[in-house]
Amino acid sequence: MEIHKVDIYGSDELIEKYGLMIPVIAAGDEEIQYGQIHKESLRKRLLTINK
Known about the structure:
35% of the residues lie in helices and 18% in strands. By secondary structure, it is α+β, with helices and mostly antiparallel strands. The chain has one domain.
């Protein structure tokens, strides 16, 4: 699994899509978590995706 950090302020499209939700953790087209990130639940979710 690769991790990419994206600065949404470089894209009007991303600001419109994610503006009030940042930070956003996504895998492919699926938003896994946004707003307040909960490390343990994020870790568990990423482990299920990586299988």
